[in-house]
Inverse folding.
């Protein structure tokens, strides 16, 4: 087992104020990945993108993020962390401005890809926070920072919808670019320097990731749990807007945006999970998280479709699904960060890339399932995903944090 201590050049601890700054940074940066989702239709029409290609607006951002997880996030084990994070925020800022100025498909789609690449700054901040935290409080710090990330993800869609209704979709990108500039100034002033001790070159760093994936059983297991969990999460949030707008509920876009806000309540799981993991209760916290996602899907079948009670239970389901995914995400990160300070960025890149792939599959399967069999088919697949994770969880022989 490698050393659990932070880098010698890292600060010996992390204050509550710094934790809050990092949590806010994660939320604000992560939101950039999701602003375009509810605006894809108006954007496509404005830039002249064919209807059948509208999905590229979201897909290219996701592709950029996935590439960044694999090829840029590992640099956190090689390059001074503060400078790396600020550089990626600069990439995001320029990309947001380019997206807001775009009048044709190619520039906008290129900007979308770059937004995804730059947004991996989030996954550089989280291991940075873990390195600053003492071992006894690492789970708490990770949980608090991740709560900011989850709030950013859940708030992005309704904020973009409301802002676009008041002004235009261009404004959403320009406002976020301004926020990124302010965030960069704050982080430049507040973040301490952290210089990794890794002596590998970049190519060696990438090769080592394959070795870590093949040999680190904790990483394999935790990534598998989270891939199933995030697939269920992505399926839920892909399908429910279609379900709510359909004949069963007839909700407007404003109503759907309010529904999405309810899911933010599930972010309370992140700090809870971190504290449980610090107390050696990562395994029961993981079981609770998986069970919560399954319960979320189950409660949607209690009331008659289209009834007020059905809508209330669907809202409860949103909270349960978000709660469960946040719980297993934080316990998973706490577990893999215990594998060694000098490996954290690489391990985090692998972990996030695998669970992000699960989310992409969940979105695609969810859209297909809803088109073929409506909510009953989509929700049964959604339920099967945490059930699969739980069956694998039952094979875990001992607690792994």
């Amino acid at each position: 087992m490698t050393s659990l201590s932070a880098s010698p050049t890292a600060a010996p601890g992390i204050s509550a104020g710094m934790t809050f700054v990092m949590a806010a940074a994660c939320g604000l940066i992560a939101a950039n990945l999701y602003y375009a989702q509810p605006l894809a239709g108006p954007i496509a029409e404005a830039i002249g993108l064919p209807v059948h290609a509208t999905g590229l607006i979201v897909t290219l951002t996701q592709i950029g993020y996935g590439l960044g997880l694999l090829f840029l996030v590992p640099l956190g084990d090689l390059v001074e962390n503060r400078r790396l994070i600020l550089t990626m925020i600069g990439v995001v800022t320029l990309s947001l401005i380019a997206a807001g100025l775009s009048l044709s498909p190619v520039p906008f789609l290129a900007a979308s890809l770059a937004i995804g690449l730059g947004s991996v700054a989030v996954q550089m901040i989280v291991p940075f926070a873990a390195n600053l935290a003492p071992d006894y409080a690492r789970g708490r710090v990770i949980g608090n920072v991740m709560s900011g990330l989850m709030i950013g993800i859940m708030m992005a869609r309704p904020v973009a919808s409301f802002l676009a209704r008041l002004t235009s979709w261009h404004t959403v990108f320009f406002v976020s670019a301004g926020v990124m500039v302010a965030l960069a100034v704050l982080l430049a002033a507040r973040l301490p320097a952290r210089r990794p001790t890794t002596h590998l070159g970049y190519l060696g760093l990438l090769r080592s990731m394959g070795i870590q994936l093949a040999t680190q059983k904790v990483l394999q297991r935790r990534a598998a749990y989270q891939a199933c969990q995030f697939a269920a999460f992505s399926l839920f949030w892909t399908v429910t807007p279609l379900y709510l707008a359909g004949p069963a509920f007839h909700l407007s876009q404003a109503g759907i945006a309010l529904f999405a806000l309810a899911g933010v309540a599930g972010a309370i799981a992140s700090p809870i999970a971190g504290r449980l993991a610090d107390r050696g209760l990562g395994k029961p916290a993981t079981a609770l998280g998986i069970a919560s996602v399954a319960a979320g899907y189950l409660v949607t079948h209690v009331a008659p479709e289209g009834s007020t009670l059905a809508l209330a239970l669907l809202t409860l389901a949103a909270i349960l699904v978000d709660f469960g995914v946040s719980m297993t995400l934080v316990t998973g990160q706490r577990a893999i960060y215990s594998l060694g300070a000098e490996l954290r960025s690489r391990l985090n890149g692998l972990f996030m890339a695998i669970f992000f792939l699960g989310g992409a599959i969940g979105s695609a399967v969810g859209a297909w399932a809803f088109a073929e069999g409506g909510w009953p088919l989509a929700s049964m697949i959604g339920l099967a995903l945490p059930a699969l994770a739980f069956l694998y969880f039952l094979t875990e022989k001992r607690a792994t944090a």
